[in-house]
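Lecture 7 notes: from sequence to structure.

We start with a single chain of 131 residues. Read the sequence below before looking at the structure.
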Amino acid sequence: MTGQLLQFLGSLAAILVLAAIARWLKLGPSPRLASEDEARTASQEAADGFHPTHIGLDKEGSGALLANAAGEVLLLRPHGTHFAGRILTPAARVRLEDGGLAIDTAERRFGTAHLAIDNPQAWVQRIEAIR
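Now the structure, written as tokens:
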């Protein structure tokens, strides 16, 4: 066996081991929300007992805004291979941006989410009503 072939086989084995580790850790593409039912399921995982009455899905499926009967608004955004959610507080800020919304949760670690949803002005009003 030549040195080059041995090096190639070693590199191939290392790549396969790294791919197996990534699969085991469930690393992969960002999750997507394809329907309101998926958004409801993700909202239950993020905030137990949150029952949405209005759902605004991002057009690319990369997040959602959900409102309940009590006037609370839950923001879902990708986090790894799942969705993380925050119920927005009065400190949250929202602005129209490039035909969509920029929602700043006022939590430094959660950051700002950018969503392209239908009827963004209605969601601005819902979020501003939290104050």
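The chain has a mean pLDDT of 90. Keep this in mind for problem set 3.
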